[in-house]
Amino acid sequence: DAKTTQPPSMDCAEGRAANLPCNHSTISGNEYVYWYRQIHSQGPQYIIHGLKNNETNEMASLIITEDRKSSTLILPHATLRDTAVYYCIVRGGGSNYKLTFGKGTLLTVNP
Amino acid sequence: GAVVSQHPSWVICKSGTSVKIECRSLDFQATTMFWYRQFPKQSLMLMATSNEGSKATYEQGVEKDKFLINHASLTLSTLTVTSAHPEDSSFYICSARDPKTGIGGTEAFFGQGTRLTVV
Q1: Separation CA B118–CA B87 (nearest Å)
Q2: Which of B1, B8, B42, B97 is most deeply buried (CB count within 10 A of its CB)?
């Protein structure tokens, strides 16, 4: 599975949009981009995933560049409860479906 | 989304004893479950992949005789830490794959984790 690079930490004001970048320049054609987050001392929570097209659900939006080498997770109106470590993971079908976690981005939402 | 439950949420045990952690998929049948370990301020590290009815596949560097994994049913996988030592103290997390979701599905649902402290 392709490697991902994320900034170690970011800050965001409550109520503002949080934009979390992820670089995955070695992604291959059949690999999906997944985003999970982990609130302190809990198991990871699925947020969103995509292949080529931008995706949106009730939690977030995922913007994938046309060349698929990077993506951005957008939390449109961050709340204090969104403070967590956000993991961007690239995964293909030939890896027995296991997810390999990098270091992620610690997003701190400030009041 | 689907629910994965771990038990216990936390456990303290004496050095040299064994501890069993359970991971259950509550509303789906999980053909594949994964066990992760997370040390403080570090990311999740995959320990092993267990498939129902077969032996687990361990990641490099993980001692299979120390971390016994059993996946005897489609809704239950257990991780037993044998002869626990203080360095085994960690946050253990399981995840389960819903086979009804395909390559593009969410696939992996995580338990809430088990905090193991070996004293």
Answers
A1: 8
A2: B97
**Residues A32, B103: C-beta atoms closer than 8 Å:** yes
Half-sphere exposure of A77 (CA within 13 A, CB side): 2
* Angle ∠(A57,A44,A80) on CA atoms, nearest 5: 70
Mean pLDDT of A90-97: 68
- Long-range residue pairs from B58-64, CB within 8 A, at least 24 positions apart, any chain: none
For B39, nearest residue in chain A (alpha carbons): A41
State how far the Cα of A83 lies from the Cα of A72, in Å rounded to an integer.
Answer: 17
Closest CA to A61 of A33, A40, A25: A33
DSSP labels, A64-104 = E-TTSSEEEEEETT--GGG-EEEEEEEE-TTSTT-------
Tell me which amino acid residue B119 is: V
Residues B49-99 pLDDT 10s: 998 888 899 999 999 999 999 988 989 999 999 999 999 999 999 999 877
Instruction: Tell me the pLDDT tens digit for each residue of A15-68.
Output: 999 999 999 999 988 889 999 999 998 999 999 999 999 999 999 999 999 999
B:49-108 residues touching chain A, CB 8 A cutoff:
49, 57, 91, 93, 95, 97, 103-104, 106-108
What Å distances lie between residue A47 and A30, B20, B84, B114, CA to CA?
Answer: 20, 30, 34, 22
- Number of alpha carbons in the 13 Å side-chain half-sphere of residue A21: 9
Residues B104/A53, Cβ–Cβ less than 8 Å:
no
